[in-house]
Design goal:
This protein has 498 residues and is an alpha/beta fold. The chain is built from 13 helices and 21 strands. The chain folds into two domains: 135 residues, Sandwich (Immunoglobulin-like); 349 residues, TIM Barrel, CATH 3.20.20.
Length: 498
C-alpha cells in the first residue's frame, strides 16, 4: 500500500522541475520553433525558458570602429516568450568575433544560421563589460526593472570547457582566472544598471575533472567581493563513451553525484546558502548523438526517459539543498535526419510528442504543497510526489521503475490510500507507459515509417496523446484507488471535488 495523508502538509513546494533550455535560441523565430513554443504554452508544460543573448549577431562595429547594437531579433524572441507566458533566464553569451583575442578559424566556427561560435577570450574585458551594460540597460528600458529583476541572468555557458571558452588555455587554473575576469566585468556591467537584478554563474559544464575550476571561481568571488546571487551548473547522468564501454549505464542516480559535489564545494567555499540552478540536465550528454551511433539513445524516444525524469524529480525533492530549478536541455529540430532518432528534444521531426514531453505536461500539474506519505517495502520501485493545490484539489505523481533501469519489472497492482479526505472526490488518471501516451511504440508497430502516410501520421500522433481516464470516486469511507502499472510507467492522479 501507498498511503497519502491529504490532511497533513509536509512542506510548501516550489516547482523546480518545469523548466527548459530552448536550443538553438535563434530558432525561436522559426516556424517550427513557434509551433513548439505554442504547444508548450497551450499545455502549460513549461514555466521558464533559458536562452542565449547571442551577442555575436547583436553587436557589430561601424565604419569608425564604434560599437553598434541591433536588438531586433533579441526583442522578438523575448517578446514572443513573454506573450506565451514563459519566464525568462538569459545566458550572456557569446562574444562577437571582432572582440576575440584569437580570431582564427580554429576558435571561431560557424553554427546555426551562420552565427559564429567564438571559443576565444575577449582581448579587452572592459568592452565586454560595456556590452553587458548596454544590453542590460536595453532590457530594463524595454521590459521594466520590476520585470527583469524576476529573471535570472548569468555569465556565459560552460566556460570550464575549452569548446566554449579560452580554448588555448593550458590548464584549468588559467581558464578559471580568465573566466573570473569575464564574470567580474559582467557583474559590473549588469549591476551598474540596477542593483535589483539577479546575477550568477558559472554555468559549469561539470565534468568531474573540472570541479577545480568551480572551486577557483568561488574562492575568487569570495576574495574579490563580486556579487553572486545563484550558482548555475550542468548535470548529466553519464557520457557516451561510458555507455559504449558499459562502465556507467543510464541511471537516475548519476546526476545526484555531480549535484552533491557542487553543493559540497559551494558549502566549503562559503556559498552553501545560494540557490542552486541546474540550467542543463539530461540522462546523457551530447544532444545530437543518436541511436545509429549508440543504440541505447533510443531511451530518449520511449517511456524510459519519462520515468527517468519523474524518478529524478522525486529524488531531488528529498535533498536538503537550496535546489531551485532544473532545466532539460533540448536540442531543437534543425538537422534531424528522421523521426525518433534518439536526439534530445520533446518532439520528433514530424512533431510527434515524445513520452518525455508528456511527463513534463503531467509534472506541471502538481500542486503548491507536498503532502506526507509512506509506501510499504514491496513498493520500493515506486516514486511518489503527492501534492495539494491552493484550490483544495490534489495531484499525485507516481513512477514505477528501477533506479538503474536495468530490471524489467513485472506489471504490478498498487493500492493508493488517500487518508484524511473530507467529502467526495472524482479521481482521474493519466498514464505514460509502453502502450499509453507513447508515439514511439506506435511508430515501431507501424514499421518505423520515415515517410509515413497521413493516416500513419495521424495514428502515431494519436498514440502519443495523453488521455484522461476516470477511476471513479473516493471519500473518507472509501479512500482507496487501485492502479496497475507497467515497467517504467508514469501515472498522474487528479483528485478533484466530485
Amino acid at each position: 500500500m501507498i498511503k497519502v495523508f491529504c490532511d497533513k502538509k509536509e512542506k510548501d513546494l516550489k516547482n523546480f522541475w518545469s523548466h527548459i533550455v530552448f536550443h538553438p535560441t535563434d530558432a525561436i523565430e522559426d516556424d517550427w520553433g513557434q509551433a513548439f513554443l505554442d504547444k508548450m504554452a497551450t499545455d502549460k508544460a513549461v514555466k521558464t525558458i533559458r536562452i542565449y543573448s547571442i551577442f555575436e549577431e547583436m553587436v557589430t562595429l561601424d565604419e569608425n570602429g564604434k560599437m553598434q547594437f541591433d536588438f531586433t531579433k533579441n526583442d522578438f524572441r523575448i517578446d514572443s516568450l513573454l506573450e506565451k507566458g514563459f519566464d525568462i533566464f538569459i545566458a550572456y553569451a557569446f562574444i562577437p568575433v571582432w572582440l576575440a583575442a584569437d580570431q582564427s578559424s580554429e576558435l571561431c566556427s560557424e553554427r546555426y544560421k551562420g552565427n559564429i561560435l567564438v571559443r576565444s577570450k575577449p582581448y579587452d574585458y572592459s568592452i565586454w563589460e560595456e556590452i553587458c551594460r548596454v544590453y542590460t540597460q536595453h532590457l530594463v528600458d524595454r521590459y521594466g526593472e520590476e520585470q527583469v529583476s524576476k529573471w535570472r541572468l548569468h555569465c556565459y555557458n560552460e566556460p570550464d570547457w575549452y569548446h566554449f571558452f579560452d580554448k588555448p588555455a593550458p590548464d584549468n587554473y588559467t581558464r578559471a582566472m580568465e573566466y573570473c575576469k569575464l564574470y567580474d566585468a559582467f557583474a559590473r556591467g549588469v549591476i551598474s544598471v540596477s542593483e535589483k537584478l539577479c546575477i550568477g554563474g558559472p554555468a559549469l559544464a561539470e565534468s568531474p575533472k573540472n570541479f577545480e575550476f568551480f572551486e577557483l571561481f568561488l574562492n575568487h568571488i569570495k576574495e574579490a567581493g563580486t556579487r553572486l546571487d545563484f550558482i548555475s551548473f550542468h548535470s548529466y547522468g553519464t557520457f557516451p563513451e561510458l555507455i559504449e564501454d558499459k562502465t556507467k549505464p543510464i541511471d537516475s542516480r548519476g546526476a545526484m553525484f555531480c549535484t552533491m559535489t557542487v553543493a559540497r564545494i559551494a558549502e566549503m567555499c562559503g556559498f552553501g546558502h545560494l540557490p542552486l540552478v541546474c540550467d542543463e540536465w539530461g540522462a546523457i550528454t551530447e544532444g545530437y548523438l543518436d541511436k545509429e551511433r549508440i543504440p541505447e539513445m533510443v531511451f530518449r524516444e520511449n517511456e524510459l526517459y519519462a520515468a527517468y525524469y519523474v524518478r529524478m524529480l522525486t529524488m531531488f525533492d528529498e535533498l536538503k539543498l537550496p535546489y531551485e530549478q532544473m532545466m532539460i536541455c533540448l536540442s531543437g529540430q534543425h538537422g534531424l535526419r528522421g523521426d525518433f532518432m534518439g536526439n534530445r528534444n520533446f518532439f520528433t521531426k514530424s512533431f510527434y510528442p515524445k513520452p518525455i514531453y508528456n511527463a513534463y505536461v503531467l509534472a506541471a500539474k502538481l500542486g503548491e504543497e507536498k503532502l506526507h506519505f509512506y509506501a510499504d517495502l514491496e513498493n520500493e520501485h515506486v516514486s511518489v510526489m503527492p501534492t495539494k493545490h491552493k484550490d483544495g484539489h490534489y495531484s499525485v505523481l507516481l513512477c514505477y521503475a528501477d533506479d538503474g533501469f536495468a530490471l524489467d519489472l513485472p506489471t504490478h497492482n498498487f493500492e493508493i490510500n488517500l487518508s484524511g479526505l473530507k467529502g467526495k472526490y472524482q479521481v482521474t488518471q493519466y498514464v505514460i507507459d509502453k502502450d499509453t501516451a507513447n508515439a514511439y511504440s506506435k511508430f515501431v508497430e507501424l514499421g518505423e515509417p520515415q515517410n509515413a502516410t497521413e493516416e500513419q501520421k495521424k495514428a502515431i500522433r494519436e498514440a502519443g496523446t495523453l488521455k484522461p481516464e476516470s477511476l471513479g470516486t473516493v471519500s473518507k469511507e472509501n479512500p482507496c484507488v487501485a492502479l496497475t502499472m507497467q515497467n517504467n510507467a508514469v501515472v498522474l492522479l487528479e483528485i478533484e471535488p466530485a
